[in-house]
Design brief:
- By secondary structure, the protein is mainly beta.
- It is 13% helix and 38% strand.
- The protein has 2 domains: 146 residues, Sandwich (Immunoglobulin-like), CATH 2.60.40; 108 residues.
- A hairpin with a 4-residue loop joins β8 and β9.
Length: 304
């Protein structure tokens, strides 16, 4: 029996070897006609926000091109932008698939693996110009979606539509071809007025249940905290004296401040209310008694 198996294996191996050497083999004909694709691997995301108050701020990524000839097929990369309107209060804006710029293959340099690398970026001003939108059509919270389109020397073009999940979000390739950039803005500098109220008449007790924490304004230049003093516990910050029901204070945002987030710690007993006014006494936010949820407050007044 062992001899029969050995002879059968020898015959089978000879058939396989013969087929492998046959240039007319069907498998060879199929694989010989298939071309490999190409990717733009994300090396680093340098910025994913655009400040509408500073036109020169930019979105940017560093990418590495790879094809079946180790980058020799790279011709150029087109940078396209689409506007995603997430703030319908100022109307709905449609601006999609607009060319911002084209990066020539010669702008890429050899990376540590010998493959072409480049940092690709676009400023807020470039994106707005490409889309043809005006300040009344966008607002903080909207998105610019940048797409990179890779063109090879043989005429093929690869976009986000050509990749699957393994390539777009895999641990190695990370080649989505698309990137979101959130629109933010710098706050209008000046003196902001806050009118604070407590419906029970015993000052503020936030989520700590005692003197509590106040509202924080977290800026790139520092943090300010304010709130109504409570008779039950000493405040860990400089609180505002009050009659138990009402108080008023101010917060100054210096000129040149790039960001300012207003953060509310929550309301322990559902008694807190407040209004925030801008430097020109414009009402920016009104929170009725007991309705304030913990987290970032939607206070937005963009510097012009």
């Amino acid at each position: 029996m062992k001899k029969i198996i050995l002879k059968s294996f020898t015959v089978l191996f000879g058939v396989v070897l013969f087929q492998a050497c046959d240039s007319n083999n069907v498998i060879d004909q199929v694989t010989g006609s298939v071309k490999s694709g190409a990717v733009l691997r994300t090396v680093a995301v340098l910025s994913n926000t655009l400040n509408s108050s500073i036109p020169t701020t930019s979105w940017g990524v560093t990418v590495e091109e790879q094809d079946d000839q180790n980058g020799a097929l790279l011709k150029s990369v087109g940078v396209y932008v689409t506007f995603k309107d997430l703030t319908p209060d100022n109307g709905t804006t449609v601006a999609s698939d607009k060319l911002v710029k084209t990066i020539a293959g010669s702008a890429f340099t050899a990376g540590p693996f010998g493959l072409p690398r480049a940092t690709i970026s676009a400023t807020f001003a470039e994106a707005v110009s490409a889309m043809g939108v005006t300040p009344s059509q966008y607002a903080p919270g909207d998105l610019f979606v940048f797409e990179l389109r890779l063109e090879l020397t043989d005429g093929r073009i690869f976009t986000s539509a050509d990749v699957n999940g393994t390539v777009s979000g895999g641990s190695f390739f990370k080649s989505p071809f698309k990137y979101n950039a959130l629109i933010v803005c710098s706050p209008e500098p000046g003196v902001y007025t806050i009118k604070m109220h407590d419906s029970y008449g015993d000052g503020w007790q936030t989520t700590t249940g005692g003197g509590g924490r106040g509202i924080k304004v977290v800026m790139d230049s520092g943090t300010i905290e304010f709130g109504m003093c409570s008779p039950y516990e000493a405040s860990p910050f400089v609180c505002t004296p009050n009659d138990g029901f009402d108080a008023e204070t101010t917060v100054t945002i210096p000129a040149g401040t790039l960001s300012a987030n207003w953060i509310f710690p929550g309301d322990q007993y559902g008694e807190i209310g407040f209004e925030i006014f801008g430097p020109a006494n414009q009402l920016l936010l009104a929170v009725p008694f007991g309705t304030g949820a913990a987290g970032i407050l939607p206070v937005t007044l963009c510097a012009m």
